[in-house]
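Hi C.,

You asked whether I'd gotten around to modeling the 85-residue construct. I have! Everything is below, sequence then structure, no commentary in between.
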Amino acid sequence: MTPDHKDPIRPLLKIDQTFVKYINSNPNDQAIAQAVITLAKSMDMEIIAEGVETDEQRSLQENFGCNQYQSYLFGKPCSLANLVI
């Protein structure tokens, strides 16, 4: 992709739940998540963290620049017919 060409669909980078689970207690997981978020932002990519189960995990990632999360904290899987938006 040339510098003057923008992809009409912004790429998405997902932070695996493996790094999210112990992000508040494991400095290595914290460093990896922060580096991934920084890299994705520098490449103008959307970022979503998977497996965010506590407000503390969400807050820390939000401080790093991630603002999209996927987990039971926000909603359990359901059928399309039961989806409430």
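If it helps when you're writing up: The longest helix spans residues 27-42.

Thanks,
B.
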